[in-house]
Design brief:
8-stranded mixed sheet; pyruvate-formate lyase- activating enzyme; globular; alpha/beta
Length: 291
């Protein structure tokens, strides 16, 4: 397998075959993300992708799940992407699901009919980072999209029958817009109605422009309990149907796993209790947090 640079995948794809079809991220301007800053984006050569599929297929033809890396495989033109999917089907007849990261630009370059073509070839889930529902925060972190565009893109995914897993980012609005970010994100989640929501907590790491902003004092990360208040507010402000909501990523201070709307009241009560007690011992220690 011809991997280039660090390979990132969602936690739920831990046991999947990782096939790198692009290098880096076509957007790569988000100020909070250092993941692909050292990579110049490109679509990998079609023959190199085919060779990787053939090599993996010869070794592990019984693979059931496949994940297309790096940042946004959907940016690949439809004819080339269909060729990749068809060759995967040939070499991995037992495959049940193919997943990929996606961004709004890549999704909106596909029609619902084109997304259905990919669905028919076992593209079963997309992972989309929406980060915030606050327009000012989206602009500040150079996300390159708007809430309306996010809603349009996610509607296409759902219309195509593809599962949608989104991430939201606690703390990305800074202390100044903390609760605004939380409220508006909950409201955007209601518009989007994803199948899964993963709440992560912003971690400031060297290489990300937001780290430099924090070092200079122009950005202030909310405190751990302020971040927990954001999580509670997001859940309160959302009205989700048939959704699994997680905050059990290693970056978070407090794990939550809830099926919404069934568990909404109980989840808010637990978060209220932790916030009212304000006991740091209830939070994940800093040395155990990670990206």
């Amino acid at each position: 397998m011809q991997y280039e640079g660090p390979i990132i995948r969602p936690p739920s794809e831990a046991h999947s075959l990782i096939l790198q079809v692009t290098v880096g991220c076509s957007h790569n301007r988000c100020t909070f993300c250092p993941a692909y800053k050292a990579k110049r984006f490109r679509i990998k050569d079609a023959e190199a992708i085919r060779q990787d599929i053939d090599e993996a297929g010869a070794c592990s033809p019984g693979v059931r799940r496949i994940f297309l890396a790096d940042g946004d495989a959907l940016i690949i033109p439809q004819p080339q992407l269909l060729e990749i999917m068809n060759h995967l089907h040939l070499r991995f007849p037992a495959a049940q699901r193919i997943g990929t990261y996606a961004n709004v630009k890549g999704i909106l370059q596909k029609s619902v009919a084109e997304l259905k073509e990919l669905k028919a070839r076992k593209l079963g889930i997309m992972y989309l980072g929406i980060e915030s529902g606050d327009e000012e925060t989206l602009a500040a972190v150079h996300k390159g999209t708007t809430c309306d565009s996010i809603a349009e893109a996610t509607a296409r995914v759902k219309d195509a029958g593809i599962k949608l897993s989104v991430t939201v980012l606690l703390g990305v609005g800074g202390r100044e817009r903390s609760l605004i970010h939380a409220r508006e994100t909950g409201r955007l989640l209601t518009r989007v109605q994803p199948d899964y929501v993963g709440a992560l907590t912003l971690m400031l790491v060297p290489g990300a422009p937001l780290y430099d902003a924090a070092q200079s004092g122009s950005f202030a990360l909310p405190s751990p309990f302020e971040l927990l208040r954001e999580l509670k507010t997001m859940i309160e402000e959302s009205d989700l149907n048939h959704c699994l909501f997680f905050s059990n990523h290693a970056s978070n201070y407090f794990p939550v796993k809830a099926r919404l709307p069934r568990d909404k009241k109980a989840c808010v009560q637990v978060l209220d209790k932790v916030l009212n007690q304000h006991d740091g011992a209830a939070l994940t220690p800093e040395h155990l947090r990670a990206l």
